[in-house]
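Troubleshooting entry. Yesterday's outputs looked truncated, so today I'm pasting the complete records for two proteins to confirm everything comes through intact. If either block looks cut off, that's the bug. Protein one:
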Amino acid sequence: TDVGSQKDRVMSEEEWLQKWEMGNIGFHKDQGHPLLQKYLDVLLNGRSGLRIFFPLCGKAVEMKWLADVGHSVVGVEISEQALKDFFAEHSLPYCEEPVPEISGAKKLRSTSGNISLYCCSIYDLSSSIIGKFDGVWDRGALVAVNPCDRQRYVSLMITLMEKNSSYLLVTVSYDPNKHKGPPFYVPESEIKSLFG
């Protein structure tokens, strides 16, 4: 598969934090993503009260929307500013607590208890810390992780999924020789080999 010059591209956590600090977050959508609305039935599969995971969640508005209709939402994001912005922009009260298993990590939890957002590297998480999920909404995570980390990312995601969980994945299609990413180009053949 030709992924152009992206194969060796690496973005550091500092670069992501800088994007949030500078407000350079063109990847954030103020409105819910139309593909989530279109494929919501696939994610929910007739079930209610699901645990839904948002990897690299930023301040995704869909987290509040899904929590409001009765689901339990868990997200992870390296930028504490993004998480605090999420709660502020939705006028949601929250409390902060340390995550004993992860040095320096925090969990920001809505006082209603149905939204828990972890501030740490996604690679520090495990099912023993955050449990397993009935659904995953991956709108910008796989395309944001460094190409060299994709296998590690997908392996983690698979360990976080319940047996009957649904995984909604959004990718972008373009010529990887013309754009260095992120978002990174992930060809369908690679998605199939990663997720099996």
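Protein two, checking that the full record survives here as well:
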Amino acid sequence: MSSRGLALAPPAKNVVVYRNGDPFFPGRKVVVNQRRFLTFEAFLNEVTKSIHAPLAVRNLYTPRHGHRVAELGDLQDGCHYVAAGFEKFKKLNYLNHGRKELRGTRNSEGLQVSTSGWLFSPIFHSCRNTGSSHALGCFYCSVFRNGDLLSPPFPLPLSKSTPLQWDALLATLTEKANLRSGAVNKLCRLDGTQVSGGEELVNGDYYVAVGNEEYKKLPYFELLVPQDSACRTLWYVD
């Protein structure tokens, strides 16, 4: 058979999908492979599982104007979409999730929990503005989701000068990680050893949020962290 007679499959596309009406959901990367998904409905079923939607996803919309995507072939590589059931599209600032100026309230432990689920100290804004975390006694860790090789790690800014309540940290990780298994019950290093307290966290290190299931040893860092050395520590900061 000549090369002209060969039917080449369309190349795979990478898209990011948000949950309709959820301002806290950071979006999940989904690979659109038309060899795997023969129909648009099959792809929507995969999206339902990937974003942990409470109801089956039946519609995709563009995030800015809410234009409905009707076919698998209409999806564009590198673009963002909003997944919904049969409800109407809810217009939110999906694309800027995680880049807004963080706001929160102080809890009884002296920490602030932002509306996006990030845990940070009262001097968090000062750390960002000066760029000198060591001088101000604050530091960053990055956290992967156990078994998830589609979502990048999320930042965990902490203060060395503020006492850290471990239960409060796990509660914040639960909200931010949104694990399929439920609540975050432990934090592990990349080698699988468990962190038992906040004093063991190291500035710039990477950790994995784990629920009731066992730690899954996967190449999180190799696959989800940009290879540029400058980006390895600063890629998630505005």
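Both blocks look complete. Sanity check on protein two: The chain has six helices and 13 strands.
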